[in-house]
Design a protein that fits this description.
Elements (H helix, E strand, L loop, with lengths): L2 H34 L8 E4 L4 E3 L8 E6 L6 H16 L7 E6 L7 H9 L5 E5 L2 H10 L4 E5 L9 E5 L3 E4 L5 E5 L5 H14 L1
Parallel strand pairs: 3-4, 4-5
Antiparallel strand pairs: 1-2, 1-5, 3-8, 6-7, 8-9
Helix pairs in contact: 2-5
Keywords: Copper, Disulfide bond, Metal-binding
Protein name: Sco copper chaperone family protein
Organism: Rhizobium johnstonii (strain DSM 114642 / LMG 32736 / 3841) (Rhizobium leguminosarum bv. viciae)
């Protein structure tokens, strides 16, 4: 075999081997990423609106819409809960493919009883969650939610207050992994499509 032909054959072999190793490494990396991707948030033990203990396991088994807010919220929270309930009715009319939870960021006022009365007036498909203030604070931080107490009157910091908080709905797949968000004021058709995609993803 001429030297030039031999060199070409060697280089072709090297390129083929490099391509094979690259593809193998890429697939292996992707597989590890999928397996290693953890559920969103942190473990928790809180209280549902029915007074029963509830843990992060409630966010497994079905795709989940998760929203953080408070019952004294003047606009964002009631609007989001009302719209989310309507979107769920469209996407999952039988109510067996999608679940939703509303976690208070104001546990000092939002007891399980208050959450039950508030959420039940809006939806039978969304479950309210409360708990001890320190436990709620851990969950808020662990789920990367912004929440801050803001006095209504700056001259009276210990008086009445409201809460600034993240207004997006978090979307989690059936394994509890982060799958996107629905922003406050999202186009209704877009929100419905996102929930449909979440359900189809499983």
């Amino acid at each position: 075999m001429p030297m030039k032909t031999f060199r070409i054959a060697v280089w072709v072999g090297v390129l083929i081997l490099a391509g094979f190793l690259g593809a193998f490494t890429l697939n292996l990396t992707k597989s590890k990423d999928v397996v290693a991707e953890p559920p969103f948030g942190v473990p928790f033990t809180l209280v549902s609106q029915n007074g029963q203990p509830i843990t992060e396991e409630a966010l497994r088994g079905k795709p989940t819409a998760l929203f953080f807010g408070f019952t004294h919220c003047p606009e964002v929270c009631p609007t989001t809960l009302f719209e989310l309930n309507g979107w769920m009715e469209k996407v999952d009319p039988k109510g067996d493919k999608l679940q939703a939870y509303f976690v208070t960021v104001d546990p000092e006022r939002d007891t399980p009883e208050i959450m039950n009365e508030y959420v039940s007036n809006v939806s039978k498909r969304i479950t309210g969650i409360s708990g001890a203030p320190d436990k709620i604070a851990e969950v808020v931080k662990g789920f990367r939610v912004y929440a801050k107490k803001v006095p209504v009157d700056e001259k009276d910091p210990n008086g009445d207050y409201t809460m600034d908080h993240t207004a997006s709905v978090f979307l989690l797949d059936s394994a509890g992994r982060f799958s996107g968000t629905i922003a406050y004021g999202e186009n209704p058709d877009t929100a419905v499509k996102k929930l449909e995609n979440l359900v189809s993803k499983g």
